[in-house]
Write a structure and sequence with these properties.
Layout (H helix, E strand, L loop, with lengths): L12 E5 L2 E7 L4 H8 L4 H8 L4 H22 L8 E3 L5 E3 L1 H4 L3 E8 L2 E8 L3 E7 L6 H8 L2 H9 L5 H19 L10 E3 L9 E4 L2 E2 L5 E6 L5 E8 L2
Antiparallel strand pairs: 1-2, 2-6, 3-4, 5-6, 7-12, 8-9, 9-10, 11-12
Helix pairs in contact: 1-3, 2-3
């Protein structure tokens, strides 16, 4: 289903699960359309956009932020350009005090030309997306960043499954720490997630507690061919 503030030509899709909603949007759109979206951004967002070295990265940032404003504006009934954000200690965005009473929480991630957005009411949420690809140093990254249990599962995967298994784990861990609002300051070995292709997305352990008792729920989905995404939200 198309999100109403996005035109069909922008190739956006929406889905929902319970009280959590997630949406995918394509970021590579006509250059003339990017110019119009720039006007929706705040002064600091425009300054951030101009710091990008490459035009493609600059355009994608503008589209991703403008889409976020459009989607939030639709849900709050306010003009997209009127929205103001605050940021947590680790950079997680939230609505400024004027709009915080709505209880709307959100998170956004983008990889290459795809952005994903998550929205929830009165519960924290985190989302991440990655293009599935071969990384020459994937095994080294897994050894450093995955928990022992995750790394053991990853190393048992066949060569054809390993790239997807790597990004399943990466997006699920990233979505969880984004939901917590702690970013990479949160020790990545303090929790385990499932990662094997075909296995349901789950939080298996947090600290010394089983994942089903951690107070968070995880989903994984394919927002576009060649991409994988994960969403984590507080349990009701």
């Amino acid at each position: 289903m198309m999100a109403s503030p996005l035109r069909a030509s922008d190739n956006a899709t929406r889905a929902s699960a319970g009280a959590t909603e997630f949406l995918m949007a394509r970021l590579d759109i006509a250059p003339q359309a990017v110019g119009a979206l720039l006007d929706l951004l705040s002064e600091d967002e425009q300054q951030r956009a101009h710091r990008f070295v490459f035009d493609r990265d600059r355009r994608r940032f503008i589209v991703a932020r403008a889409r976020l404003r459009q989607l939030l504006g639709e849900r709050l009934g306010v003009p997209p350009a009127a929205l103001r954000f605050v940021y947590g200690a680790q950079g997680k965005p939230a609505l400024a005090a004027k709009f915080a009473g709505s209880g709307l929480r959100f998170n956004v991630s983008h990889s290459e030309g795809v952005a994903v957005y998550a929205f929830a009411l009165d519960r924290e949420v985190g989302i991440d997306v990655e293009a599935v690809r071969e990384l020459p140093d994937a095994d080294d990254i897994a050894a450093r960043c995955f928990s022992r249990r995750e790394n053991e599962t990853y190393l048992k995967l066949g060569s054809r499954e390993r790239s997807l298994g790597f990004f399943n784990c990466w997006t699920r861990k990233e979505a969880f720490i984004k939901a917590l609002g702690e970013g990479l300051s949160h020790p990545l070995d303090r929790f385990d997630v499932s990662l094997a292709p075909g296995e349901p997305a789950r939080i298996l352990r947090v600290g010394g507690a089983p994942g089903e008792h951690c107070g968070w729920r995880m989903q994984s989905f394919v927002p576009a061919a060649g991409f994988v995404s994960a969403l984590v939200a507080e349990a009701s």
